[in-house]
Amino acid sequence: MKNRLIIAVDGPSGSGKSSVCRAVATQFGADYLDTGAMYRAATWYCLDQQVDLDDEDAVAVAVEELPLNISTDPEHQIICVDQTDVTEAIREPRISEAVSEVATNRKARQLLINAQRRIIDESGFIVAEGRDITTVVAPDAQVRVLLTASAEARLRRRGLQLEAASGAAETQEALRRQVLERDKKDSKASNFTEAADGVAVLDSSDLTFEETVNSLITRIDDVRQGAVAHTPADEHVTERAL
């Protein structure tokens, strides 16, 4: 697919991946894939089915059977498990504190990676974000970025996000479990704290949301302009495909 454009963004919890990537995808009219939501939905399903998260095989079977439907519209992100809309439910603290058990399950992770690759392959222009998009899921992406921020900034942002969603402030201990301790657990399955070769680092610690979005847009524009410059004059290229 010579005209496809994949933007892969990795980063730790609270770095702003989801909000930044949704805004960028909306700006370009691209698809958007939140791979973290897939792990969260799988976790919700396992808990709903009373699957023992310590049983690697049982979790893998549940993930293989997972009746997941995930929207790739950045302006209308809807995640359903079978007929149940879990878009809000998968953001609950109980999911945040359990999702690492699924994310570090090797068999379950591979099943979800395969599903993520299928979604990306079916899209002509997509912004995909997660933990290992730049290195495992889509290492051939034209734009590969590690979006990071200091621990203080990430804890503050996640706290504000959760307070806005629930109306109640989380304790610092709860935030540390959901952000820093989760990152520590997830790092056993993927390296999302250091940029691999060819992956650009975007540190948003001292940037506003708009500045972070604009920085990523600039990187994408550079690649798109390069693609146009190297396209034969007689070859038709649509705006969306570049």
TrEMBL record:
<protein>
    <recommendedName>
        <fullName>Cytidylate kinase</fullName>
        <ecNumber>2.7.4.25</ecNumber>
    </recommendedName>
</protein>
<dbReference type="GO" id="GO:0016301">
    <property type="term" value="F:kinase activity"/>
</dbReference>
<keyword id="KW-0963">Cytoplasm</keyword>
<dbReference type="InterPro" id="IPR003136">
    <property type="entry name" value="Cytidylate_kin"/>
</dbReference>
<comment type="similarity">
    <text>Belongs to the cytidylate kinase family. Type 1 subfamily.</text>
</comment>
<keyword id="KW-0067">ATP-binding</keyword>
<keyword id="KW-0547">Nucleotide-binding</keyword>
<dbReference type="InterPro" id="IPR027417">
    <property type="entry name" value="P-loop_NTPase"/>
</dbReference>
<keyword id="KW-0418">Kinase</keyword>
<dbReference type="InterPro" id="IPR011994">
    <property type="entry name" value="Cytidylate_kinase_dom"/>
</dbReference>
<feature type="binding site">
    <location>
        <begin position="11"/>
        <end position="19"/>
    </location>
    <ligand>
        <name>ATP</name>
    </ligand>
</feature>
<feature type="domain" description="Cytidylate kinase">
    <location>
        <begin position="7"/>
        <end position="220"/>
    </location>
</feature>
<dbReference type="Pfam" id="PF02224">
    <property type="entry name" value="Cytidylate_kin"/>
</dbReference>
<keyword id="KW-0808">Transferase</keyword>
